Amino acid sequence: MMDKNTDSQDVVIDDAVYELYDEYCHGHMDRREFLQRCGAISVAGVSGLAMAQALMPRYAEAQTISFTDERIKPSYQTYPSPGGTSGEMKGYLVVPEGEGPFPAVLVIHENRGLNPYIEDVARRFGTMGFVALAPDGLYPVGGYPGNDDDGRELQKSLDQTQLKTDMLNSARFLKDHATSNGKLGAVGFCWGGGTVNYLAVEMGEGLAAGAPFYGAAAPSDDVPAISAKLMVQSAEDDERINAMWPEFEAALAAENKDFVRHLYPGTRHGFHNNSTPRFNEEQAAIAEERTIKFFADNLKA
């Protein structure tokens, strides 16, 4: 079966290559093995290697909001992170123009650090009237290295408990920031989606709303600690993450938690990321619009 999504060069991506890319993205193989295995595939005269190369991120083409946009004031901020990887963290803070305070949204990256796609997402929230912080989990080890391969390896090498503590401290920093109205939401993608669920457990009433995009579910035993309203954003073709949903849904329902799940048709894991052909423009726009409204409704002072 061939997928309809294409890149700028109109390379059509076969499902087998997408599956290999998902394994590669989640650290189950390195770049060399990914390209070698794709190279053994050929469909309708198109080599799997060409398909694989088409899947690599194109961040310059994916930017939607310029860092010079007059509606926002972006800056990099450092702040304490006790118990984290190094005791200090850095994040990309985007403050809307105008009089605050503003509702606050933490934007949590995938499993490769703070890349340009996530910074762009933070700017999008800034233009919508939210103060947004996108922390870089790799800051204590030099920051996002400029490419996803090295970023993925760096993030995998970190102590995961300390890394999550860095995200928790980032959430607290943003919630208490002078430009914040004290109402905090969190959105995250892939690893970041799972981290939104982690924050919902750890922060209790400190997190008002969470929108995890295709992220790992919280353990059922931890669900009673959740106070945040949740909007779970799921891709239709995402077997690994979707397999976690029935148990998570049952636990949320049993505890009478406030949640909704949206399953987006014709989408794959990573469908919101507009830097690769996994991007589904129509469904990503719907998901983003729902998320913005969800936060606007639930982060009022």
In a nutshell, what does this entry contain?
With 301 residues, this protein is α/β, with parallel strands linked by helices.
Give the CATH topology of the largest domain: Rossmann fold
In sequence order, what are the helices and strands, one letter per element? EEHHEEHHEEEHEHHEHEEHHEH
Helix content: 25-40%
Identify the CATH architecture of the largest domain.
3-Layer(aba) Sandwich
Residue windows where pLDDT falls under 50 for at least 5 positions: 1-9
In the CATH scheme, the class of the largest domain would be Alpha Beta
Shape: globular
Question: What would the average pLDDT be, to the nearest integer?
Answer: 91
User: Helix segment count?
Assistant: 11
Count of individual domains: 2
Structural class: alpha/beta
Strand content: 25-35%
Rg for CA atoms? 19 Å
- Biggest sheet architecture: 8 strands, mixed
Characterization of the model:
By secondary structure, the chain is an alpha/beta fold. The protein has two domains: 2-56, no CATH class; 60-298, Alpha/Beta hydrolase fold, catalytic domain (Rossmann fold, 3-Layer(aba) Sandwich). 38% of the residues lie in helices and 26% in strands. It has helices spanning 15-25, 31-39, 48-55, 59-62, 116-127, 148-157, 160-175, 191-203, 239-242, 245-254, 281-298; strands at residues 2-6, 12-14, 42-43, 46-47, 72-81, 87-96, 102-108, 131-135, 180-189, 209-213, 229-237, 259-268. A hairpin with a 5-residue loop joins β5 and β6 (87-96).
